[in-house]
Design a protein that fits this description.
By secondary structure, the protein is α/β, with parallel strands linked by helices. It has two domains: about 140 residues, HUPs (Rossmann fold, 3-Layer(aba) Sandwich); about 120 residues, 3-Layer(aba) Sandwich (Rossmann fold). It has eleven helices and ten strands. The longest helix is centred in the first third of the chain and has 29 residues. It holds the Pfam family Usp.
């Protein structure tokens, strides 16, 4: 079972739904929950720094502290309502860097999908990408749209036999054990990636069975369809409330420039996604 879970708490519109997901997960796992609010440095272009007075910077800090106070109330009300042991932290710095340091002493972190309309709240374009790359822990990303009353009841594992996917599966075992249904989905299977069984996903199913987790393995051959869109479509059809997948099997710069499954999921996710790098 997970013992310590961290959640990024901010002033964004999706904060309440994200905190609720973290509280529900902590309650299900019997884990302690740590809420972290990060006050980021003022975003002032270099050519304006000399023209901005200390009064303006201090006013921004005051506003950030007021937002932190309001966010703390949301976090503590949700955690207390769920009967979850919790701790509140407020700190300053670059969001992804600060959260990476805090999660090193936690089993998992819950963060939000980057909301293009609220970059100041979510840490800008660096979140959650850079956190996933540098956390050293699984990152549960919650979409910025919608509410998610159940997470981890019906789970789909996006399996490609990569190091990143294997890490994601290992990191999610405690959640998978509590799931009602777990599916392994292989898109365009590579016959060279099989272990001792030629059936796509069968080796992973055997591994999970040894951990007391029963899964159904599926595969799709559709080289003319984008894998990310195929996964999202199948997940919607099957009522999946959590996707488990490896992140950035290719270099992050390559996915940003050329596209990739991780990048597409972070842009278009419709359910929470547990990622590991």
């Amino acid at each position: 079972m997970l013992k310590d879970i961290t959640v990024h708490v901010d002033a964004g519109r999706a904060n309440g739904a994200r905190v609720d997901v973290a509280c529900a997960l902590a309650k299900a796992q019997g884990a302690r929950l740590v809420g972290v609010f990060v006050i980021t440095p003022p975003d002032i272009p270099p050519y304006l720094e000399s023209q901005v007075g200390n009064e303006v910077i201090e006013a921004q800090h005051e506003n950030a502290r007021a937002e932190a106070h309001a966010a703390k109330a949301v976090f503590e009300k949700a955690a207390a309502g769920m009967g979850v042991e919790h701790e509140w932290r407020i700190t300053e710095g670059i969001t992804a860097d600060v959260l990476a340091q805090h999660v090193r002493y936690s089993d998992m972190i819950v963060v939000g999908q980057n909301d293009p309309d609220e970059r100041l709240f979510t840490g800008g374009g660096a979140m959650p990408d850079e956190l996933i790359m540098g956390a050293g822990r699984p990152v549960l990303v919650v979409p910025y749209v919608g509410g998610y009353p159940t997470v981890g009841s019906h789970v789909m594992i996006a399996w490609d036999a990569s190091v990143q996917a294997a890490r994601a599966v290992k990191d999610s075992l405690d959640i998978l054990r509590q799931a009602q249904r777990v599916s392994v989905m292989v898109i365009n299977p590579d016959s060279n990636a099989a272990g001792g069984n030629p059936l796509p996903g069968a080796d992973l199913a055997t591994y999970l069975a040894r951990h007391g987790i029963t899964v159904d393995a599926q595969h799709i051959n559709a080289s003319d369809i984008d894998p990310a869109n195929m996964l999202l479509s199948r997940a919607a059809d099957e009522g999946i409330d959590l996707m488990v997948m490896g992140a950035y099997g290719h270099a992050r710069w390559r996915e940003i420039v050329m596209g990739g499954v991780t990048r597409e999921f972070l842009l278009h996710m419709t359910m929470p996604v547990l990622m590991a790098h």
